[in-house]
Amino acid sequence: MSSSPAAYRDAVYCGSVDGNLYCIEYKSGRERWKFETGKPIIGSATVFDDIVYVGSTDHSLYAILA
């Protein structure tokens, strides 16, 4: 992982240099899902109102339903 995680409800969201945003279940550590951006994510995700926001080095800002 290359960014600080964002915790929200029962999950943790973290971007990675492999270009994916990962949603990890807090208690079990199990991966729930991942979202591919195509380029590394070096900034931290933030969560507001059930939406995860993350920028990628592909020059895009993504908004993904938590």
Architecture overview:
The chain is mostly beta strands and 66 residues long. The chain has a single domain, classed as Beta Barrel (Thrombin, subunit H). Helices cover 0% and strands 53% of the residues. It has no helices and seven strands. The strands form two sheets. It has a four-stranded antiparallel beta sheet with strand order 1-2-3-4, with no helix packed on it. Strands 5-6-7 form a three-stranded antiparallel beta sheet, with no helix packed on it. Strand 6 and strand 7 form a beta hairpin. The radius of gyration is 11 Å and the shape is globular.
Secondary-structure map with pairings?
Layout: E1 6-8, E2 11-15, E3 20-25, E4 31-36, E5 46-48, E6 51-56, E7 60-65
Antiparallel strand pairs: 1-2, 2-3, 3-4, 5-6, 6-7
In short:
The chain is mainly β. The chain contains no helices and 7 strands. The strands form 2 sheets. A 4-stranded antiparallel beta sheet has the order 1-2-3-4, with no helix packed on it. The protein has a 3-stranded antiparallel beta sheet with strand order 5-6-7, with no helix packed on it.
Q: Which sequence of strands runs across the widest sheet?
A: 1-2-3-4
Structural class: mainly beta
In whole angstroms, the N-to-C terminal distance is 19 Å
Label the overall shape: globular
Average per-residue pLDDT, rounded, comes to: 94
Provide the gyration radius in Å. 11 Å
Low-confidence stretches: none
What is the CATH class name?
Answer: Mainly Beta
Number of strands: 7
The residue fraction in helices comes out at: under 10%
Number of discrete domains: 1
Largest sheet: 4 strands, antiparallel
Q: Would you identify the CATH architecture?
A: Beta Barrel
- Which sequence of SSEs, written as H and E, runs from N to C? EEEEEEE
Count the helices. How many? 0
CATH topology: Thrombin, subunit H
Beta-strand content: over 45%
